[in-house]
Amino acid sequence: MIPMATAPRQFTTPMCGAAATSTTSGFACDLDAASAFYVAIMRHAGLREGRRWEDGLQFRGAWATFSLVDDGAPPTENLHIAFPAPDRQTVEDFHRAATTVGYLDGGSPGERSQLHPGCYAAYVLDPDGTNVESVFRNRS
Q1: DSSP per residue over 41-109, as a string?
Q2: Which of 33, 81, 122, 128 has the largest CB neighbor count within 10 A?
Q3: Each residue of 122-135: pLDDT tens digit?
Q4: pTM, whole model, 2 decimals?
């Protein structure tokens, strides 16, 4: 296994209509600020805290693991991360959890039928400018 700090910077994240990822790593500029953001949303993103190490923090979910790493390199840019939600209420709770503590609104909860029929999503920006999405795909 490649240590997280030296792992290749490859990202595959779920979006409306896409399959879920198994592992995603984000390279953060300020690990404490990034950690605070993901702790604020983790319950609504289906995550729980995993292992910690000097330069990183892992979150675990039923669908994947997600790690933040501060290895001294510039933060990952132009990244979009989507967390699957079981229902619309979870999408709304995710957005409210982030915006009520001051994180930037990237898109209020709502239908995103232009992306996929039945797609209901909300977006917020993490401290490094990553576009973080909660998405419910109504397949009925």
Answers
A1: HGGGGTEEEEEEETTEEEEEESS-EEEEE-SSSPPP-S-EEEEE-SSHHHHHHHHHHHHTTTPEEEEEE
A2: 122
A3: 999 999 889 999 99
A4: 0.78
